[in-house]
Amino acid sequence: MRTHNAMSEYKKSNTAADRIHFLNTAASDAILIESCGKFALIDCAEDNDCKKVGENDRSLGILLEKDGTRIFLAGDIDNFSGDEKRLAPQIGKINLLKVGHHSYAGSTSVCWLKTLKPDTCIITNRHKGADKKTCFKIKLIARSDIFVTGTENGVIAEVHKNGRIDYFSNIHK
Length: 173
Prior knowledge:
Elements: H1 2-12, H2 16-19, E1 23-24, E2 38-43, E3 60-66, E4 69-73, H3 83-91, E5 96-98, H4 110-116, E6 120-123, H5 132-142, E7 145-148, H6 149-152, E8 155-159, E9 165-169
Parallel strand pairs: 4-5, 5-6, 6-7
Antiparallel strand pairs: 1-2, 2-3, 3-4, 8-9
Helix pairs in contact: 3-4, 4-5
């Protein structure tokens, strides 16, 4: 299975730059990416300081690329120990950002938004749980559209061959 071998290579990487590997996938792989594309695992674990800020400091992100469209699924990545500032230049401009750590304080820094410049942001949270300051930063800095999954009753993003992304909400019955 290519996924297992890729993960073994990934775990051997020593630097943050070495950790960003695009892997070509095929429909038969154990990775559930419809219509295939490339993806990279982004590891937050390379902190050179000793301060512990919780399990989210070990979060993984996934960078997906398909037909020129770039999507970053930020997991629980935040900026308490500088992860966003360190990773943003390696990730670069994206089209869609799944906002890190449910938009809670400490995630989605100004530097992160200025570098990633997402066209659209998806926040996985209830409407009342979405951090108002984070939503304000997204609108002010990135000028992105925002979907909150709790408000939209779920969100699906479909990437077409021409790079266009269609969003579908109200997906739960």
